[in-house]
Amino acid sequence: MNLQKYKDNLMFLPLGGSGEIGMNVNLYHLDGKWIMIDLGAGFADKEQLPGIDMIAPNIEFVHTLGDNFLGLVLTHAHEDHLGALTYLWQQIKCPIYATPFTAEVLKAKLQEFPDAINKVKLKVLPFNSRFEVGPFSLEMIHLTHSIPEMQAIAVKTRHGTVMHTGDWKFDDKPLVGPASDYARLKQYGDEGVLAMVCDSTNVLSAGHSGSEGDLRESLTKLIGECKQLVAVTTFASNIARVETIARAAAANGRKVVMIGRSLWRITEAGREAGYLQDVPEFLSDQEARRFPRDKLLVICTGCQGEPLAATNKLANDLLPTLRLVPKDTIIFSSKIIPGNDKRIFALFNQLVKRGIEILTEKDHFVHVSGHPSRDELKKMYELVRPNIAVPVHGEAVHLHEHCKWAKTWGVPQTIEIANGDLVNLAPGKPEKLAVVPWGYLAVDGNYLLPTDSPVLKLRRRILNDGVLFCTVVLNVKGDLLTSPKIAAPGMLDDEDDRELLQVMEQEVAGVVELQNRAPNDAIVKQVRNALKRIAKTEIGKYPTIEVQVMRV
Ligand SMILES: [Zn+2]
Ligand SMILES: [Zn+2]
User: Fold this and answer.
1) Residues whose CB falls within 8 Å of the CB of residue 497, separated by 6 or more in sequence, listed in order
2) What is the residue-level pLDDT of the chain in tens, covering all 552 positions?
3) Ligand 2 centre and the CA of 294: distance in Å?
4) How far apart are the CA of 13 and the centre of ligand 2, in A?
5) N or C: lower Cβ tally within 10 Å for the chain?
6) Pick from 511, 451, 461: which is nearest to 486 by CA?
7) What does the alpha-carbon distance between residue 133 and residue 73 come to, in Å, rounded to a whole number?
């Protein structure tokens, strides 16, 4: 693709987060220069990617930009907006701009890499900052969300202004940080906005997302009705919720115990950046033992049923320091995210079987979303009045619905996009110009693998169809030194299936004796064919077959 052709164009390019919820990566172009807004990670689809928890965006396209890639601006500290820096920080050579809390969270994430602190060019800015990056004049505008210091980015250029909202809601009682900066949004609207690139997560929900302030009242009342120990699980990054829960506990005379590494890490980052100042220090599960159980409230990680997190350990009685007993209560102050619902319901069932009461968003007012419902979206469009709506942060169905609504709210032009779409915003009409390469990297331990790599394809096959190993040892003349050995871990049992394994070993011996003057790869091929045949007729499976021929 000849980018030179579009040198004068203001263009938008999502490399993640458009067509999916998670892994947000957005780029803007003008005069051959590029900036990126957010670099998020996503959760892996376990069925497609066995053994993989997280995915990061493949940003090969960005590497082709060289020095023309000028800066990365972070809107907020959620994993789906900065999480990929854990894996890709070495590849980002340009400055990274963030507000103090977002910077603290990023620093905590990068702590495990001693080099990172010197190499990452982190520029910490106060919120509502205005700064220049190449041909772009940027302004951060404060919006409320489920984490402190969420900043929309106004991208001003000679072709007009793009309002890049990031994740937001309109909450006039946010409890942590100020309310959204309506006045500034309206000023931009008055001056004229070319395009708005906006959050679509909850476009399918009518009404308003609800306020953290109202939630605090509800949680205080619900906790007041509990007679025994209460545990509350939520997203670690939701500092306002942590404060809400801590205050609801205090109002009911309960001390707050905190369990889970990510909660400790983020609340420390929060205190560092000036939040949670009036909330007393939390107790560890060890310290909690000094207090009566009905005077305790436990805040714990694992609201999405994560197997290694605190809630799962509590449910399965795996924490020696703190154990739940019948009639204790556990509140899920979080959304049941589609995709995680199976393991969350397994957790609910486990708790109920043990006689523990559960309160969830399905039956009680225990959670408000951090994303705008339609009434809030409508208000945003009334304030900003963009000429073009570019919905992002949603699956295809959300983006489509968002475009339809934007039209009814008077936006003259809308454009439905997907990851990799290079979109012209100005001059001329908004349209897709090309598709650039994009994709996912699977985080496999310390490795990053393209999700279509042969390693992962084979892993998926082995998981479904099994694997069969065969070792053949020959002497220099090509005669068998010992009988062939076959193992099929996870498919055939060494003892129970001994008979079948022996049949296979004899078959292999026969094949090798006929072929013993042939080169190794010919033997491997014949042995594999023989084993494939037996596996199909005897087991009805098509395992991956690994044959090793050794000569001694
Ligand atoms: Zn967010
Ligand atoms: Zn997000």
Assistant:
1) 488
2) 788 999 999 999 999 999 999 999 999 999 999 999 999 999 888 888 999 989 999 999 999 999 999 999 999 999 999 999 999 999 999 999 999 999 999 999 999 999 998 999 999 999 899 999 999 999 999 999 999 999 999 999 999 999 999 999 999 988 888 899 999 999 999 999 999 999 999 999 999 999 999 999 999 999 999 999 999 999 988 888 999 999 999 999 999 999 999 999 999 989 988 999 989 999 999 999 999 999 999 999 999 999 999 999 999 999 999 999 999 999 999 999 888 889 999 999 999 999 999 999 999 999 999 999 999 999 999 999 999 999 999 999 999 999 999 999 999 999 999 999 999 999 999 999 999 999 999 999 999 999 999 999 999 999 989 999 999 999 888 889 999 999 999 899 999 999 999 999 999 999 988 877 888 899 999 999 999 999 999 999 999 999 999 988
3) 37
4) 17
5) C
6) 511
7) 10
| Ligand 2 centroid, distance to 79 Cα (angstroms) | 8
The three-state secondary structure class of 432 is strand
Structural domains for the chain: 11-207+369-450 (3.60.15.10), 212-359 (3.40.50.10710), 466-551 (3.10.20.580)
Give the distance between the most distant pair of CA atoms in the chain. Answer: 89
Q: Assess contact for 263 and 231: CB atoms under 8 A.
A: no
Phi, psi of 437 (to 5 degrees): -65, 135
Q: How far does the centroid of ligand 2 lie from the alpha carbon of residue 172, in Å?
A: 20
CA torsion through residues 379, 382, 385, 389, sign? positive
The Å distance, Cα 373 to ligand 2 centre, comes to 14
Q: Answer whether the bond into residue 427 is a cis peptide, omega within 30°.
A: yes
DSSP single-letter state for residue 175: S
Q: How far is the CA of 529 from the centre of ligand 1 (A)?
A: 53
Burial class, 32, CB count within 10 angstroms (exposed 0-12 / middle 13-18 / buried 19+): middle
CA of 370 to the centre of ligand 2 (A): 9
Residues 6+ apart with CB under 8 A from 519: none
- What is the whole-number distance in angstroms between the Cα of residue 192 and the centre of ligand 2? 26
Q: Which tokens hold the place of 5?
A: 């052709």
Ligand 1 centroid to Cα of residue 485, in Å, is: 54
Residue 364's φ and ψ, nearest 5 degrees, are -140, 160
Residue whose pair of structure tokens reads 């225990």 in the numeric block: 366
Q: How far is the CA of 307 from the centre of ligand 2 (A)?
A: 23
Q: 446 and 420 in contact (C-beta within 8 Å)? A: no
Distance between Cα 145 and ligand 1 center (Å):
7
Indicate which ligand has the atom closest to the C-alpha of 102. 1
Q: 76 CA distance to ligand 1 centroid (A)? A: 7
The ligand that comes nearest to the alpha carbon of residue 78 is: 1
With 0-12 CB in 10 A as exposed, 13-18 as middle and 19+ as buried, what is 417?
buried
Return the structure tokens found at 23.
């892994």
Residue type, 325: V
Separation between Cα atoms, residue 91 and residue 104, nearest integer Å: 20
Cα(296) to ligand 2 centroid in Å equals 33
Tell me, in angstroms, the distance from the centre of ligand 2 to residue 546's CA: 43
